[in-house]
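tokens incoming
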């Protein structure tokens, strides 16, 4: 059995290296405290390979390598972990077997270690030793495992896993430091047990599988918790865990864009799926049919609910986690980018006793956030507010929130019919998804209730067409619909690394002469540490607020003339979303390619 020494001040990286190489049957000792390195190297205990990080706060890789070469370690291969290619250029003269740039792929790590060990002459295995006493174990180098928030990685790419929050809640006791000896024992036991986990799951013996995969201190559990918590820290809306033919790919959707975060061995697919199913209270023995569940992450500043969906695929079950932040702070200040006219339209309808307000747009465009911003303004002691959602996305004190449960028969329609007997002033319906739901909501809006809901349409004007297609009578729409807010989310360029560039011809051709006149310089993303090399930091909504309070618009609603409704709304002061996107480009806040996504979808 090959013995590996790892020296890295980042305990999360050390844990990933240790876990990866133990999977390959190697014995790994980790040092994460730089002050202990030189003392430890004075008495080399017969390692076959050393993996050392170049950049550490108390010692650098050059000093470690010099100590190794000056001592009795001259023939031991060394793999150096570096952060940039520039560091490698300064080390070309040193005797290093391989260099790996962080963040590294764990398969590449395993391959580099195997290649370095292949060049080492075989030797007799060392005599077996009795397990160290508790006192001896306490003096061993340790890996610091913590469940408190930490700074996310500079580049959330393959191979770097960071624990940000515990998926099982805030620990009752302070985090403990786990000795390397105990960690090695835990890893060895996990590998022995988890090696049969897939077979156990196949055979339907769920109790045994749960006993393996529910251990809070096992490396597999820690790794899964860290992936989920990292997504929450980075502000990801979704996590995709996708088994492929040769690898397990983890992608995270941040600011509306999916990006690969980790590449893991495909053999872990079934075990990771089983662990997440346990967290979501799903049947781990069922992997032929889709399942849905949920669990919660409790962080130091906010709670996040994870909705999980499983889908059988060619190479195993694909898992998608939707992350829903439960604590959004002061929602009353969420809408800050609307024009004075648009805010006035919203304030006017919120002071009305009845009518329906619809927020429209594609999935993930911020519709629910917009509606909850309105609810926070309406949330006073003299109003009875009830929401019906699937699921409840934000928790707002002072209102009654109902999460539908279709399996139990608690559907949108059933809840709506019941809550109308609960004397509500304001009703929020998560989505107008079918005729019955839309009809109940529309009738409630004309009988003394203020109703807020969402609808999937491409524009505010298209809302009328969509409602008619669902089956709502035009006269009911004209009587009940008071306000439509169409919206999209546009990514904002990182202010630290954006660069001015010319507008290229193919982009210019997509704009009108008036729009080209509005745009001077355009900016594009470059990428830096602050934005995790994405070039973007956050998103901003662009709106079009259509107020249906004029007789001209109501007449057009009766005819279902979508183009006529749009022209009349613009004539009455509505700013199209297209213009809002162009204004962000003109202000240097967004890139042309992101604005064009709004242009083409409108």
């Amino acid at each position: 059995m090959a013995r590996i020494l790892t020296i890295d001040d980042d305990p999360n990286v050390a844990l990933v290296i240790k876990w990866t190489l133990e999977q390959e049957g190697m014995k790994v000792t980790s040092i994460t405290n730089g002050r202990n390195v030189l003392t430890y190297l004075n008495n080399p205990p017969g390692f076959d390979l050393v993996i050392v990080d170049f950049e550490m706060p108390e010692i650098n890789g050059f000093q470690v390598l010099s100590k190794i070469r000056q001592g009795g370690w001259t023939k031991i291969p060394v793999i150096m972990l570096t952060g940039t290619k520039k560091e490698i250029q300064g080390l070309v003269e040193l005797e290093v077997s391989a260099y790996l740039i962080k963040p590294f792929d764990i398969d590449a790590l395993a391959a580099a270690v195997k290649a370095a060990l292949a060049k080492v002459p075989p030797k007799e295995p060392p005599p077996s030793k009795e397990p160290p006493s508790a006192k001896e174990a306490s003096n061993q180098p340790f890996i610091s495992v913590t469940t408190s928030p930490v700074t996310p990685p500079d580049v959330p790419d393959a191979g770097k896993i960071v624990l940000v929050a515990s998926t099982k809640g805030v620990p009752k006791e302070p985090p403990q430091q786990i000795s390397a000896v105990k960690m090695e024992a835990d890893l060895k036991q996990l590998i022995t047990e988890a090696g049969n986990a897939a077979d156990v799951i196949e055979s339907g013996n769920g109790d045994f599988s749960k006993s393996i995969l529910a251990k809070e201190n096992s490396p597999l559990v820690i790794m899964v918790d860290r992936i989920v918590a990292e997504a929450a820290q980075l502000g990801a809306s979704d996590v995709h865990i996708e088994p492929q033919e040769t690898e397990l790919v983890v992608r995270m959707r941040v600011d509306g864009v999916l990006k690969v975060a980790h590449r893991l061995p495909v053999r872990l697919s079934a075990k990771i799926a089983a662990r997440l199913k346990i967290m979501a209270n799903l049947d781990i023995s069922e992997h032929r049919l889709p399942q849905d569940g949920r669990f919660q992450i409790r962080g130091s500043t906010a709670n996040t609910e994870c909705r999980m969906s499983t889908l059988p695929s060619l190479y195993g079950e694909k898992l998608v986690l939707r992350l829903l932040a439960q604590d959004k702070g002061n929602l009353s200040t969420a809408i800050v980018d609307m024009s004075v006219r648009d805010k006035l339209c919203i304030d006017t309808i919120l002071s009305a006793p009845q009518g329906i307000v619809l927020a429209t747009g594609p999935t993930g465009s911020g519709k629910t956030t917009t509606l909850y911003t309105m609810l926070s303004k309406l949330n006073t002691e003299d109003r009875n507010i009830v929401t019906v959602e699937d699921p409840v996305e934000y928790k707002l004190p002072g209102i009654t929130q109902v999460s539908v449960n279709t399996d139990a028969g608690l559907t949108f329609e059933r809840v709506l019919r019941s809550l109308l007997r609960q004397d509500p002033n304001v009703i929020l319906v998560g989505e107008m998804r079918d005729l019955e739901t839309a009809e109940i909501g529309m009738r409630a809006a004309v009988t003394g209730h203020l109703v807020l809901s969402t609808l999937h349409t491409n524009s505010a004007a298209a809302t009328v067409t969509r409602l008619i297609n669902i089956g709502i009578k035009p006269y009911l729409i004209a009587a009940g619909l008071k306000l439509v807010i169409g919206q999209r989310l546009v990514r904002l360029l990182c202010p630290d690394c954006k660069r001015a560039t010319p507008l290229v011809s193919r982009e210019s051709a997509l704009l009108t002469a008036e729009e080209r006149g509005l745009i001077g310089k355009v900016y594009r993303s470059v990428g830096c540490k602050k934005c995790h090399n994405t070039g973007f930091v956050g998103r901003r909504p662009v709106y079009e607020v259509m107020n249906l309070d004029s007789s001209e618009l109501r007449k057009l609603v009766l005819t279902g003339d979508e183009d006529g409704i749009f022209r009349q709304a613009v004539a009455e002061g509505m700013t199209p979303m297209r213009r809002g996107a162009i204004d962000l480009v003109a202000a240097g806040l967004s890139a042309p390619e992101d604005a064009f996504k709004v242009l083409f979808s409108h």
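note: The first helix runs from residue 11 to 23.
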